[in-house]
Amino acid sequence: MILNSQDGPGRDERAERRLTQWTEAVKASGVKLTHQRLEIFRELAANQDHPDVETVFRAVRVRVPTVSLDTVYRTLWLLHELGLITTLGPRRDGIRFDVNLERHHHFVCVRCGLVRDFESDALTELPLPDGLTELGEVLDARVEVRGVCGACR
Amino acid sequence: MILNSQDGPGRDERAERRLTQWTEAVKASGVKLTHQRLEIFRELAANQDHPDVETVFRAVRVRVPTVSLDTVYRTLWLLHELGLITTLGPRRDGIRFDVNLERHHHFVCVRCGLVRDFESDALTELPLPDGLTELGEVLDARVEVRGVCGACR
DNA sequence: TTTAATGCAAAAGATTTGCAACATG
DNA sequence: CATGTTGCAAATCTTTTGCATTAAA
After folding, report:
1. How far is the CA of B16 from the C1' of D19 (A)?
2. Any atom of strand C under 7 A from CB of B71?
3. Which band of pLDDT confidence, cut at 50, 70 and 90, is reported for residue B89?
4. pLDDT tens by residue, A74-107
5. Residues in CB range of B83: below 8 A, 6 or more apart
């Protein structure tokens, strides 16, 4: 198992690679590469913690005190629209509840957000890497299959 | 593989079982079982679609026109506090971004919401059940390991 | 009868939008 | 220079809270 390093040279290299990729993709898409966007990219590319908008905003404001929160929102959704970042969780709208407490897995439609449960002994019994104990105490694991559901295809 | 049926007798049985479990757990915890709560339970137990608060609210309002949105919120969080339902996605707060587009898996701390990426060839290459093609076109799959991180333990 | 839950309305947060000033290509 | 982007403030939308009234045990 390979753990993504949170610090050290590996992190910097990856951050730099992302920054390059993003700036080039932005240029290629005809969108302007502003000072604010570049600084937001810089912050985000270096951040391994899956930050929320507010976190990025606060970090960027250290170097660009006049940056506004809505610019951070717009820039993050821009990266998302360009397919350069993804969101955690199934959809960009409000929180949703799962009534199923049994061990199960999810099929998530990336278009409409539909979530269907499924069960599979083979997946439920999957062998988790030993290295996980470094991160913490494992309680349970589930597989999230992403795809396009029948209705959306 | 077993697919949870979205309709038919299997669904009704499971809904009924949940309803019983919830009402008994609520009684046992000393919380009052009000008309509103019962109707919210009924709606939620029958709903296989991982509904959000608004959806539950609208459905319940058909039978209980005077029910208020905040009661639905309070009831859903009550079930959550009693450990009878879970939320989708890592945390109950705002949306977060993932800068890593490479195939990877997540370790999610259920206490503080920390998310760490990890890679594992064994998990990435796990064989997905054939039955999944019934649900749609599979794009990719990831494992979400839930646990308690080092800092929270 | 006692205690907790409800509905309402207001508050608090989070996210988006309209628009004039400004910066990029 | 033309156009897209920014910052601000206001508008929306979502979720939570205080409190008097009502209902459950």
Report:
1. 36
2. yes
3. low
4. 999 999 889 888 776 545 555 677 877 678 898 8
5. A101
Q: Indicate yes or no: strand C within 7 A of the C-beta of B7.
A: no
> For tokens 């820039």, what's the residue?
A75
Contact in structure between B136 and A153 (CB atoms under 8 Å):
yes
- Amino acid found at B65: P
The pLDDT of residue B9: 66
Whether B89 has its CB under 8 Å from any CB of chain A: the answer is: yes
What does the CA dihedral B7, B10, B11, B17 come to, rounded to 10 degrees?
A: 170
Asked if A97 and B50 come within 8 Å (Cβ–Cβ), the reply is yes
Spatial separation of the C-alpha atoms in residues A125 and A139, rounded to whole Å: 13
Identity at B39, one-letter amino acid code: E
Task: Domain A12-81: give its CATH code.
Answer: 1.10.10.10
Mean of all residue pLDDT scores within chain B: 85
Q: Does B149 touch chain A (CB under 8 A)?
A: yes
Which nucleotide across the nucleic acid strands is nearest to A36, CA versus C1'?
D6
DSSP symbol at A66: T
Range from A53-67, A77-91, B121-135 carrying the lowest mean pLDDT: A77-91
Answer whether A102 touches B (CB < 8 Å).
no
| Residue B103 to residue B142: CA distance in whole angstroms | 8
Q: Where are the domains of chain B?
A: 12-81, 105-147
Whole-angstrom Cα distance, residue B37 to residue B87? 19
Residue among A46, A109, A44, A107 nearest A79 (CA):
A44
